[in-house]
Amino acid sequence: MAIGASIKRFNSIIRQIIYIDATHLKARTMGVLLIALCKDGNEMIYPLAFEFANFECIESWTSFFKKLRKLIQYPDLMMLVSDQHNGIFNAMEVIFPNATHGICAYHLV
């Protein structure tokens, strides 16, 4: 799911830096929540898109990135920041080959 107003503003105003992560769900359905967000000019969290998946793997990240790529105007000019999960890194290289990839400072330490 992508929020239309968020995507429109992202494409026109906000810095092209997207933070990517996943969190494991502990409800009866289980699975993971994949999320893409950025920060606005006031350093506030700005949600772009999210997706529910069964597992955090290359296939689920590839599916998520394919949908995200359709929404972003200039995918080659953006930077993706993540925790270096193999699924994220491998899917990003396929779907966003010209985008820059950064490492989350928290996970780097």
Q: Can you lay out the helices and strands and say which pair or pack?
A:
Layout: H1 4-12, E1 17-24, E2 32-39, E3 45-53, H2 58-71, E4 79-82, H3 86-95, E5 100-103, H4 105-108
Parallel strand pairs: 1-4, 4-5
Antiparallel strand pairs: 1-2, 2-3
Helix pairs in contact: 2-3
Could you name the key traits of this structure?
109 residues, alpha/beta, Nucleotidyltransferase, domain 5, 4 helices, MULE_transposase_dom, MULE transposase domain-containing protein
Total helical elements? 4
Shape: globular
CATH superfamily descriptor? Ribonuclease H-like superfamily/Ribonuclease H
What's the CATH architecture name?
Answer: 2-Layer Sandwich
Roughly what fraction of the amino acids lie in strands?
A: 25-35%
Please identify the top-level CATH class: Alpha Beta
Which strand order spans the largest sheet, edge to edge or round the barrel? Answer: 3-2-1-4-5
Largest sheet: 5 strands, mixed
What Rg do the Cα atoms give? 13 Å
Which blocks of ≥5 consecutive residues have pLDDT under 50?
none
Distance between the termini: 32 Å
What is the N-to-C order of secondary-structure elements (H for helix, E for strand)? HEEEHEHEH
Query: What is the SS-derived class?
Result: alpha/beta
Number of domains: 1
Helix content: 25-40%
* CATH domain topology: Nucleotidyltransferase, domain 5
What average pLDDT do the residues reach? 81
Topology, number of strands: 5
InterPro entries: MULE_transposase_dom
Domain MULE transposase: 18-109
Protein name: MULE transposase domain-containing protein
